[in-house]
Amino acid sequence: MPATLTLVVDGRPVEVPDDGSSLLEVLRDRLGITSPKDGCSPQGQCGCCTVLIDGAPRVACVTPARRVGNRVVTTVDGLAPDERAAWAEAFLATGGSQCGFCTPGIICRLSGLRAGKPEAGDAEVERSLAAHLCRCTGWRTVLDAWHAYGTPGPARDLDAAARRATIEGHAAQRVDHDVPLGAAGFADDTAPVDAMVAVPDGAGGWATGETLADARRAAGKVQGRRSSLEPQPPLELPPGDWAVVLRTSWVEPGYLETDASWCVPGGEPVSPLANGGAFGGKVDSVVPAVARRLADELGRPVRVLLSREDAVRMGPKRPPVAAGISADGSGVMRVARTTGIAEAIRAMAPALHVEEVDVAGPPTSSAVRAAGWAEAAALLAALAGDPIVTLRSTAGAIATASVTDEVVRVRVECGRPLDEIVLRSYCVGAAHMALGWVGSEGLALDEAGEPLDLTIRSFGILRASDMPPVEVEIVPSVSEPVNGSDAVFAAVAAAAWIGQGCPQDWPTGRATDRKVS
User: Do 393 and 285 share a domain, yes or no?
Assistant: First the structure.
């Protein structure tokens, strides 16, 4: 029998085996505390598992449990009730949380900062957030939440807020006080305690175990690395004398909650889209079908999980393009062969001829945010050359954007707002993703098309300190609500590109230093 460790977790003493487990494994799999999240599996790079050790923030996934023996561990669940409520109110009132996956760790980080520097300004908060990634919110609303701490939020119709979040995220989403605290009902948080765990075995099958650690050992999981290579557009430009040309690279959607599902024998698998749409990256996730099949074969509940490395290798990417457009709007867009992508491109630019080509690389999907039509919109905007870009999305929303080093300005009309806080949050997040897409995001692949960048920091996602302020103007309307943030995403991307002089290849390298790891 292994020796035991004694910890004080969220105010109560506990004993756990001293078997080499990480603190995150102890919290989630031994103690059933699911507010710390596993977003990088475990690379120590996303901050979603951040907890307080004797009041100091630390990522739990790479912290051996034996290092914190006889110490006090506090998750977001163990914060004082009034502090928990104040953080939940602040994040809800500002839109600082959307899906709610990364925010428990962020709240723990900010709690530690507030204990020592309650008057910290934006620069200090941004520095404290350097250990975190948030894909949804674009960081500025997180800074708003810091300043809103302890201030009552406005009265709101949270059902209407959830409707707007569902429209923007293309999947059902709750908006409530428990969401920033990690209680949105993510698939891996709700699995039965006796469920067997299955993970990809690296050879096209699935390795199983009684715990996640057992399954990963059975699979022979190798820790992901990042390459020293820069992302390269995989397609050659179509021949022609073009007014504007554009080539894009492989891009990882980069959702923080990796694919997860579970199923009981004879049952329906739990959706990996528990509280948000993952930017279209999980629409065709393999994990629900695998959970159903294995549960029926094994005769017991099974939870299926992708690691961060699995999600990069197996998850769908935005189809790369190489395009040229003439002054009259005609042209050719070459694109990685993808179901539905030609229709998406033509919906924005009917005069573009679409050439689908086979290209070695990870799977692609036209469900990824604004795939195809956002690239077409950028080309059309570049023809006009106006640094203030106005476009109508394929959903019917109208967005106007301008981008400078100091500020991003956005104007959006997308039907009845329903809830302006949620809509603003999604627009800020869309601006964040657009700036990264143009300037810094991309994956390096080997000659066979296998991704080499397998750590979450290697994707080029903008950090809090990289993100300029975003001013959002919402145009009132009485028409039916439609998605507005995808239009903002396309408009900001086009404006950022035009502001840089329309260099041929994305990422342009202008947004941030990709060498940060």
Answer: no
